[in-house]
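Issue 218. Parser rejects a valid record. Input:
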Amino acid sequence: MNQQRHAGSLSLRAHFGVWVALLALLLLTLGSAYLRLGWANGAINVAIAAIKALLVMLFFMRLRASRPVLRLAAGAGFVWLLILGGLALADFLSRG
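Output the parser choked on:
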């Protein structure tokens, strides 16, 4: 049976590259846990987590090749997650 490639499918090399990037970010997160940076540790780790989430959303959920309304919904969910994270961080930092 002839299988056609999906328009948003990635090559094996691209999957491997994204996987290596996710592993590198995981190691970066692990390394930052051993650094004493004070308040910056949390900010750095949240930024790394956001980058990992974006990689998963763009490549494995195939949002790059999906319809614009689906990308808009996923983007709105991601922005909402950032808002909630920012509010939680503001609450945490305001406590003594």
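Fixed in the parser; the record now loads. Residues 42 and 79 are 19 Å apart (CA to CA).
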